[in-house]
């Protein structure tokens, strides 16, 4: 007799579909078969049973432009669980003069006692120092097997010049750490922003003009050359354009070990949102792109040049966004997204943009493999953590801030409708959400010390 059996489901892990029961004992998947019996049984006829989704790009409680992102590690992971997310990877941050150890300890203290699902961190550095690079082997041994760096944000002390980036790539290759990169040409962005400021033109329409499409494409192309020269596996975060996806494709064809993620905002929104009366609500970096660019992102996912769907979840309220006072240089940048990641991805699949198996892999197995969590996460194999999402492909869904659970008081997808919705979320054998009711608790999530990632073809 098993602890929990989900009966008569379509088990889908992105590689195969099996009509079967799935049994859970304790925190792990115990068996897959027919006629399994459990002390608790949940009928799932006509529904898909998927691995729990991973959102490997979140920003909980992030200070930005005089505000702090409105989800902490409890409210954000709770919201994610409503959308089927059972694992997140957030980011450490160091104060000036600190090393990776201090930043990790502080961030871990923020998550412990709050997170409702399991979590990990990408280490993050600004200025490249000998101390930061010397900490990389320690970070890997502590389970932080990925590192975030920036090719933009010079005025925040985050941007790497090419020499610094080359040093970090070399160090990550030596430490078996996956480097993740915010790829925009920060020098050009600073120049265009200064020109806009001098002209008194810092309204929301200036956001795409000061961060134009070519700044992403150029940065990805340059990064591809550096990744190939060093042999360092490199992951490009929040690719915002079809042209950017094409740049990753071209670099990969030339032998660069380059991988990439995109986010729902770049698949479902375009820069016409800035024409509305509250265009500032859609401010994020990189910005959403002109109509037509999303088609290239969907193609990049279909063809495997982009492997991961994540969110860059960084929610603010309208009052936070209004701190901008008409200047993008004062605008808290970021959008809510963790709760709507899975539904939007699968709605896109249902609309014919992406095979459903490809969407499932981009939410589960691919991020788990790249970030050293496979097969514990992102898998339906017996022995894996019982992180599960029961998805009803026929259940109608409508996105509205009033019924979502994220910290923002608006949704960038307000009123968008689709068919398909998570009806059950299980994390390590514990039911967190069932039929729209929250059954979880703060602090049950555990830190995940990750091993080296498994590169994808």
Largest beta sheet, briefly? 9 strands, mixed
Mean pLDDT: 97
The helix tally amounts to: 15
User: CATH homologous superfamily name of the largest domain?
Assistant: Metal-dependent hydrolases
DSSP strand tally: 19
What CATH architecture label of the largest domain applies?
Alpha-Beta Barrel
User: How many domains make up the coordinates?
Assistant: 2
Strand composition percent = 15-25%
Q: What is the radius of gyration computed over CA atoms, rounded to a whole number of angstroms?
A: 21 Å
Q: Percent range for helical residues?
A: 25-40%
**Oligomeric status of the shown chains?**
single chain
Class from secondary-structure proportions: alpha/beta
CATH top-level class of the largest domain: Alpha Beta
| Topology-level CATH name of the largest domain | TIM Barrel
Globally, the shape reads globular
What gap, in angstroms, lies between the N and C termini?
Answer: 40 Å
């Amino acid at each position: 007799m098993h602890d929990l059996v989900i009966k008569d489901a379509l088990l889908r892990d992105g590689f195969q579909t099996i009509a079967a029961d799935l049994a859970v004992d304790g925190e792990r998947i115990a068996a897959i078969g027919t006629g399994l019996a459990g002390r608790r049984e949940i009928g799932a006829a006509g529904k898909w049973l998927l691995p729990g989704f991973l959102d490997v790009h979140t920003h909980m409680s992030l200070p930005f432009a005089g505000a702090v992102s409105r989800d902490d590690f409890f409210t954000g992971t709770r919201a994610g669980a409503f959308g089927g997310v059972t694992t997140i990877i957030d980011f450490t941050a160091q104060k000036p003069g600190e090393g990776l150890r201090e930043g990790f300890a502080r961030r871990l203290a923020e998550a412990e006692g709050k997170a409702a699902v399991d979590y990990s961190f990408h280490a993050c550095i600004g200025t490249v120092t000998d101390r930061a690079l010397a900490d990389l082997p320690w970070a890997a041994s502590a389970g932080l097997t990925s590192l975030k760096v920036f090719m933009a944000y010079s005025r925040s002390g985050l941007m790497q010049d090419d020499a610094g980036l080359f040093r970090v790539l070399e160090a990550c290759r030596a430490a078996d750490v996956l480097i993740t990169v915010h790829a925009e040409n920060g020098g050009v962005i600073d120049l265009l922003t200064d020109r806009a400021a001098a002209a008194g033109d810092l309204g929301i329409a200036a956001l795409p003009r000061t961060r134009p499409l070519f700044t992403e494409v150029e940065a990805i192309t340059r990064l591809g050359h550096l990744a190939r020269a060093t042999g360092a596996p490199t992951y490009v975060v929040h690719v915002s354009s079809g042209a950017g996806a094409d740049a990753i494709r071209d670099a990969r064809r030339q032998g660069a070990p380059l991988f990439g993620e995109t986010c729902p905002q770049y698949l479902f929104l375009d820069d016409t949102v800035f024409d509305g009366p509250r265009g500032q609500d859609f401010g994020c970096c990189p910005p959403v792109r002109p109509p037509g660019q999303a088609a290239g992102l969907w193609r990049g996912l279909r063809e495997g040049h982009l492997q991961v769907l994540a969110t860059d979840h960084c929610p603010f309220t309208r009052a936070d966004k209004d701190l901008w006072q008409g200047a993008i240089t004062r605008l808290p940048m970021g959008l809510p997204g963790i709760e709507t990641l899975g539904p939007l991805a699968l709605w896109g699949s249902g609309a014919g943009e992406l095979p459903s198996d490809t969407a499932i892999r981009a939410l589960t197995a691919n991020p788990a493999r790249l970030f050293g969590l496979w097969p514990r996460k992102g898998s339906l194999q017996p022995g894996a953590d019982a992180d599960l999402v029961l998805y009803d492909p026929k259940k109608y869904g409508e996105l509205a801030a009033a019924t979502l659970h994220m910290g923002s008081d608006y949704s960038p997808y307000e009123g968008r409708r689709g068919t398909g919705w998570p009806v059950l979320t299980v994390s390590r054998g514990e039911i967190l959400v069932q039929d729209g009711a929250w059954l979880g608790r703060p602090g049950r999530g555990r830190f995940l010390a990750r091993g080296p990632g498994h590169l994808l073809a």
